[in-house]
Amino acid sequence: MFNRYYIFFHYISNLCHAVLDVLQNKNMVMCINFIGEIINRIVKVGVIVFPGSNCDRDMFHVLADVFDLDTQYYWHEKGLPNNIDAVVLPGGFSYGDRLRAGVIAANSPVIKDVKKLANRGIPILGVCNGFQILVESNLLPGVLLKNESLNFMCQWTNLIVKNNKTPFTNKLKLNQKIPIPIANGEGRYYADSELLRDLKKHDQIVFTYENYVNGSIEQIAGVCSEDRNVVGMMPHPERAAERLLNPIDNKPSSLIFESLLTTIGVKN
Residues 99, 177: one domain? Predict the structure, then answer.
């Protein structure tokens, strides 16, 4: 009888040690994952908010909730931290598009910091009104005029990738098609013949429309700086990066954000 009890308790003891080993290993894995999560969370992306911005929350949602980045809002009158990893200027109607879309916001205090970060090579993305602001700030070349129809346009279209060597296109393929919505009244990109020649020479045309949309010269929908770290685009990738919102194919727009993750060293 004693031997049976002894064998039974010995078995239970071994079982407890085995369970403890499993839990310890599991805790180690959890600890490693937790450390990885902390590293991911150290990466900071700033979404600048101007009076009249209305796509800031959409952009914040995609960056923070879909791609799990430590994303923060920055009011246009405040400065940006030096340790920020990327900056996004979202869409909207900053200052009600008074005088000219983006021109007042381009003189906001925060733009000085955006220019400093751009000079350091930090990835900066301007979408729709954000694109207009970057152009008015002279961070991007060209000008954005009223649509040829003189009407606000809100529709789905297709983009064609023309440069996949920017922080926001490095996971896309050249000539890849991106189904994406536009929503603007002053989205017609214009560049004179000399500037257009320079844009082609330096490979600064990032996106073009597949079809004739709003009268943009050579169907240009997005451009980048000569250093390629500053990118502006009129269509809205934040409205097309989730399957729930994109009735056609959300993956290409998602790759714009996944490209940023690759650039700043975050595992997706």
Answer: yes
Exposed e or buried b per residue across 163-190, where buried means at least 16 C-beta atoms within 10 angstroms of its C-beta: bbebbbbbbbeeebebbbbbbbbbbbbe
> Which is more confidently placed, 22 or 179?
179
Residues 4 and 111 in one domain: no
| pLDDT digit string, tens, across residues 76-99 | 999 999 999 999 999 999 999 999
Q: Which residues have CB under 8 Å from 144's CB, separation 6+?
A: 101, 102, 131, 132, 135, 186, 187, 188, 189, 190, 234
CA distances from 134 to 25, 144, 226, 253 (A): 50, 11, 14, 21
Reading the block at residue 133, the tokens are 């602001």
Residue 160: pLDDT over 60: yes
pTM of the model: 0.84
Same domain, 53 and 122: yes
Q: Write the CATH number for 78.
A: 3.40.50.880
| 230 beta partners | 124
For the annotated catalytic residues, the residue numbers are 128, 236, 238
Both 108 and 220 in one domain: the answer is yes
Looking up tokens 């900053």, which residue turns up? 94
Same domain, 61 and 33: no
Domain match, 65 and 133 both? yes
Structural domain boundaries enclosing 35: 1-42
> Burial, 24: exposed, middle or buried (Cβ in 10 Å; 0-12, 13-18, 19+)?
exposed
